[in-house]
Amino acid sequence: MDTTLDLSSDLVSLTRAVCDLPSVSGDERALADAIESALTRYAHLEVLRDGDAVVARTNLGRSSRVVIAGHIDTVPIADNLPTRLVGEGAQAELWGRGTVDMKAGVAVQLALAAELREPTRDVTWVFYDHEEVAAELNGLGRIVREHPDWVAGDFAILGEPTNGGIEGGCNGTLRAEVRLVGVAAHSARAWMGRNAIHAAGEVLRRLEAYTPAEVEVDGLVYRESLNAVLVSGGTAANVIPDSCVVTVNYRFAPSASVAQASAHVRELFDGYDVEIVDAAPGARPGLDDPAAQEFTRAVLEITGGAPAAKYGWTDVARFSELGVPAVNFGPGDPLLAHKDDERCVVGQITVVHAALRDWLTA
């Protein structure tokens, strides 16, 4: 497989090249190597690397600095690579894993990083690993902890898919395990045991009856969700299971802290053994910040529409914790993220590229 990237190629070809280098979480090395190699060819960029995260930045002494970041990993491939182009012109669609989440955005970043030798703001371009897995593995989080100066800035943009619009803030996310305990026995003498999987029925009924909230935060409405995402238990086909674990994912509005979200989950499953195994706070919209307002005005002149809430968790939350206002802005329909029929409209890739280019050169 050709692992070189030509950053001067057209956007569709570059997006396809980035997507066709598989980079499922934990296996990003080949793509990180290709990105680093491509960026080091440009004298106007200082290129840094930590693990499979690559940072490239200008040092022009501008009065402000923007950080533009995107993750290079994807969820597992589902027989949807290599990419294929369907249709023609701006309405053509690029199909394949990563086209939406979020390698079209990464391709836009790479093209602009190479092209913009004299932006009116200094720019830090961040390409990071392990976004699609547990929060403690996140490459941007690792950079924030170990090299905070690499991501210092006055404003940040995450290239997450937003249909080419601006999405403010993000929901928080929490993963909890609800543990059920039974007594093992031979399945031919089931009355001698207690079935832990059957005991999970009440947990699932509480989830089925649960009504998620819609919460307004700083003018944007965030939809919450609380769902069972995994059920595990049992040891053999002829043994009554003595344990069962229901894994629950809670996506909560950014007005709530992780502690408040954890308390809500524990309250819902009162009487059960609940362990919070992974959590990350959300981010308030931050659209009242002057830098965010300026960016929003500039982008909406090209894309139209109005800012909306980001329902999923994104790394705007990390910038929010650093006190850096941040928004989500990238090509691709977020409703197609992680789907087997993932696909991105070509026109969105070019519009996002044009909007960012105009703002960075205005």
Structure description:
29% of the residues lie in helices and 26% in strands. It has an eight-stranded mixed beta sheet, with helices on both faces. Strands 13-15-9-16 form a four-stranded antiparallel beta sheet, with helices on one face. The two termini are 39 Å apart. It is an alpha+beta fold and 362 residues long. The model has no long low-confidence stretch (mean pLDDT 95).
Please name the defining characteristics of this protein.
19 strands; 4-stranded antiparallel beta sheet; 362 residues; single chain; alpha+beta
Give a short synopsis of this structure.
The protein is of the alpha+beta class. The protein is built from 9 helices and 19 strands.
Overall geometry: globular
- Determine the structural class based on helices, strands and strand pairing: alpha+beta
- Cα gyration radius (Å): 22 Å
Mean of the pLDDT scores? 95
Query: Biggest β-sheet: count, sense, barrel?
Result: 8 strands, mixed
The run of helices and strands is HHEEEEEHEHEEEEHEEEEEHEHEHEEH
